[in-house]
Amino acid sequence: CTVGVVRETRPGERRVALVPTVVEKLTGRHVRVVVEPGAGIAALIPDEHYTASGASIGDAWSADVVVKVAPPTAREVASLNPGTTLIGFLNPRGDPEAVAGLSTAEVTAFAVEEIPRISRAQSMDALSSQANVAGYKAVLLAAWECTRFFPMLTTAAGTVKPATVLVLGAGVAGLQALATAKRLGGRPTGYDVRPEVAEQVRSVGARWLDLGVEAVGEGGYARELTEDERARQQTELERAIGTFDVVITTALVPGRTAPTLVTEDAVRGMKPGSVVVDLAGETGGNCALTQPGQTVVRHDVTISSPLNLPATMPEHASELYARNVAALLELMLDEQGRWAPDFDDEVVAAACVTRSGSATTGEVR
Ligand code: NAD
């Protein structure tokens, strides 16, 4: 089959769905890869690197399978021929109308967000690969905005204490943030409503903050807290947050707006010059004072809510994403490189959000 790598058009999106090393692997499996001119430019990959890896430069939108990073815009959907397969981040839970649009356009679409978090599909887990980038970059941003050092310094002018860093939500992004804060010399502490992550938090050299509120939901993800649990959590967190120089928040509940974990009172209780980096801005934010996509100063605390951090590291973010996409493609190719998805396969079935012009389920899982 032919796989098309298109140029991303959403503002600020610098990633590309396949990189030359991964193209080479696919062409070795009898797949023809067509790259839209300039598709890799924002990730600093010139067209010649793709052609050197066996791809051709041309009309990638007419390929059998179009691979993308960001959800397609209306104009991009209009560029897809009926019967085309699309793979990418499609935000099916946040934007079901866009999925309906793909269905109307008779596109068969696979949303990488819906790939189940099972061991067999780990190599395809784009949520994790990109969350790693976001968690890492969030700490660098916090260190940049913070008025204090991260590491303990012993100098001729005396000793400086290390920064204390609290990470709320210890999923993939949170664990990477904890590990990065530790490497920078900070003193990280992690918190989550899933008690089983305490061990993972400790394994990256961080402390575990136990607030006694647990909320494990479907598929191992967090569930929404009850009113009572939320009130208890906020009281306990308000008390704890004031003792940290930096707070990084990553708490998400699938299909819901992000929970508020850092109230205005908690910000007021922080030392002047402290920093909050809120990675949940896309779904409303974990801090009550967050302005998604902006950095604001409130009560002498800097509150930053960057959107799409993975796009700020397009080289490695694209490389990791490309490996995820290739693993998913390989699952659906036969020995001769022909497109042969098995819709009964657990991973294929879960990721497929529209098929042959009709949504696979009335409601996205
Ligand atoms: P996510 O991005 O959905 O959420 C981030 C974190 O926020 C989660 O750890 C969640 O528990 C936490 N959270 C939600 N509400 C909270 C609240 N009110 N207070 C504090 N924390 C809150 O999570 P993710 O990083 O995508 O990981 C989700 C799940 O997937 C986890 O169970 C993870 O272990 C699992 N996972 C499995 C695999 C695999 O086995 N292949 C790979 C990656 C992730």
Describe this structure in words.
Helices cover 30% and strands 17% of the residues. With 365 residues, the chain is of the alpha/beta class. β2 (32-35), α2 and β3 (56-57) form a beta-alpha-beta unit. α5 (126-145) crosses α6 (172-183) and α5 (126-145) runs antiparallel to α10 (314-331). Nicotinamide-adenine-dinucleotide is lined by residues 117-119, 122, 125, 127-128, 131, 168-174, 192-194, 220-222, 225, 250-254, 259, 261. Residues 4-134 form the Alanine dehydrogenase/pyridine nucleotide transhydrogenase N-terminal domain. One of its GO terms (molecular function) is oxidoreductase activity.
Series of H and E elements? EHEHEEHEHEHEEEHEHEHEHEEEHHEE
Enumerate how many helices there are, as a single number.
11
Structural class: alpha/beta
How much strand content do the residues show? 15-25%
Distance between the termini: 29 Å
Mean pLDDT: 94
> What's the shape?
globular
Q: Please give the share of residues in helix.
A: 25-40%
Report the strand count. 17
Q: In this structure, how is the largest beta sheet organized? A: 8 strands, mixed
Produce a short descriptive summary:
This protein is of the alpha/beta class and 365 residues long.
How is the secondary structure organized here?
Blueprint: E1 2-5, H1 20-27, E2 32-35, H2 47-52, E3 56-57, E4 65-67, H3 74-78, E5 85-88, H4 96-104, E6 108-111, H5 126-145, E7 153-155, E8 158-160, E9 164-168, H6 172-183, E10 187-191, H7 198-203, E11 207-208, H8 227-241, E12 246-249, H9 264-268, E13 275-278, E14 295-298, E15 301-304, H10 314-331, H11 346-351, E16 352-355, E17 358-359
Parallel strand pairs: 1-2, 1-4, 2-3, 4-5, 5-6, 9-10, 9-12, 10-11, 12-13, 13-15
Antiparallel strand pairs: 6-16, 7-8, 14-15, 16-17
Helix pairs in contact: 5-6, 5-10
The structure holds nicotinamide-adenine-dinucleotide.
Nicotinamide-adenine-dinucleotide (NAD) binds next to helix 5 and helix 6.
